[in-house]
Protein 1
Amino acid sequence: MSERAGVSERIRLARPDVGAAELAAIAEVLVTGQLTMGPKVKEFEALLAGACETEHAVAVSSGTAALHVAVLALGIGPGDEVIVPAYTFPATANVVALAGARPVLVDVDPQTFNLDLSLVADAITPRTKAVLAVHLFGRPLDWDALEALVPAGVTLVEDAAGALGARYRGRPCGSLGAAGCLSFHPRKIVTTGDGGALTTNDAPLAERARTLRNHGWSPSDGYDDMPAAGFNYRLPDVLCALGIPQVERLEELLAARERVARGYEERLSGLVELPAAAEGDRHGLQAYVVQLDRRDEAMAALRAEGIECQIGTYALHHLGAYKDGGNFPGADKAFERALALPLHTALSDAELDRVAEALARFA
Ligand SMILES: Cc1ncc(COP(=O)(O)O)c(C=O)c1O
């Protein structure tokens, strides 16, 4: 245990892996004076498209903006229903509601944290326009199974906010649906502070997303006309520059997170439920979320020892905005038992020991 004046050093929940390359990239942008809609946006987008193996990536100001633009670019609006998991970050459902459509909550499998696919078919109605499927915490959803059970005409969109680098049966998350939505919030593997991107192989969809992110101007690279209203959801060049070296090191960043995950596995196996991807998939490890019955006690004790930790995410039906959505025992279970442990590339073995020792007392 590392100690200073008798006080254990704080173990951070997340810590961006950024350094000299990122500083240099940002400095380069500041020197050029082209702070937004410049070459770094295109460079970042090309790298993201490469990482997700899609033809297009559209950088936007957050993961939420990526989801919002995806929903609007798909023409989803009043009268439409969109299936979303009951256990997710609220943005997944919020963008549907803000587009004027109805988010239809479907329970999750508390073991995987992802949509319980046995419940999806029953939630589909003639109004269902899309499923906004989340790869929660970076665990790929069983995409082929989802595809097999939705009728033609229902569009599949990936909330891949935490799944950059994750792979489903060898295919990158972000390339599986009609559109993928990434987040670069500081708890994500690649961070720009705030930021996001929409990935797709559909050129007209990408163009609609570009138009929506830039006030509605069309074509998106010119200012000829504004056929419909849009937002300012742009991601500035400074932030794209911050993201570029990280995407270039994506494999290295993922490998470093996998080292931490293995470290937790060695220490916690058999004590608490551990996260894992399905056989043949690669977990994106956006968060390392374990499950245990005495979660609240454990969370309080870890925090008291200077170990940052957090609940997994939210059970939407317990939030005011979605409280009449129904009963979701899987989401309840996940909400009550999930605990996100520190996860970043600089975590030392001694820190992993400290977390594991503190947590083992609640197993
Ligand atoms: C599953 C999921 N969807 C959407 C978002 C929203 O992303 P952002 O914070 O970049 O807006 C998050 C963010 O944590 C998330 O975890």
Protein 2
Amino acid sequence: MPELVGIGVGPGDPDLLTVKAVKAIQSADVIMCPASKEDRPSIALSVVSSLIDKSKNQEIVKLVFPMTKDKDVLVETWKKNAKIMAEKVLAGNNVVYLTVGDPYLYSTWIYMHREIEEKFPDVKISVIPGIVSMFTFASKVGVSIAEGSEKVSIIPSCYDLTTVKEIAKNSETMVFLKDGRYFDQVIKLLKESGFPNDSIFAIGQDLGTENEVIRKMKLGEVNDDTLTTKYFSILVVKRV
Ligand SMILES: C[S@@+](CC[C@H](N)C(=O)[O-])C[C@H]1O[C@@H](n2cnc3c(N)ncnc32)[C@H](O)[C@@H]1O
């Protein structure tokens, strides 16, 4: 029976896909992937491009998800793309949908899954998890995300950070995802919420790619040159 498989392709290095993900991608009839604009490449697709055998002529469909916080635009986009996806499966194709990292962490897959489950209940859906960017980063910098009784907070740094000060006071580790362009506000917030200067501070950008940047220091040593400015950035801060 044809099905839709949501696949986590990991953080950028094609060697960090699961065997199950590779098998599903290579045997699919249709490979779907997200892009922020029609004329922009899909990062998820670029991660797996070396694994795709072009002689098989698998159909590749790029679905555009604009980078906006406008809820009406987002809902319209989710409905439109979910319909395209569901109709391909109902026409008898095995479809995979690629997402960076894991499909269940800040991913477009979450909305696709929800919409298709509700509007197209006949579509069989399964999910193959992927290696999450923050764990890739933890292994690269040798910093544990949590140990013993520690509490961890995961914060999307491009949203309203005013409530995060209270969370900071009660977290041993904080992971900031989604957009390095807001990391200057994060540093200010950490200092205002009393995160100690000797806390471990690590920042990563474009992990698993040839443009990878990694910096690790104490929070008190951070200056303007430490910060990254790209969307694909991660910041981890941890009390010692
Ligand atoms: C929309 S979220 C997707 C998260 C993804 N589903 C995961 O499991 O890691 C995108 C954010 O994930 C982080 N990210 C994902 N891959 C990354 C990479 N290769 N290098 C740095 N950050 C990455 C960045 O914070 C980026 O802004």
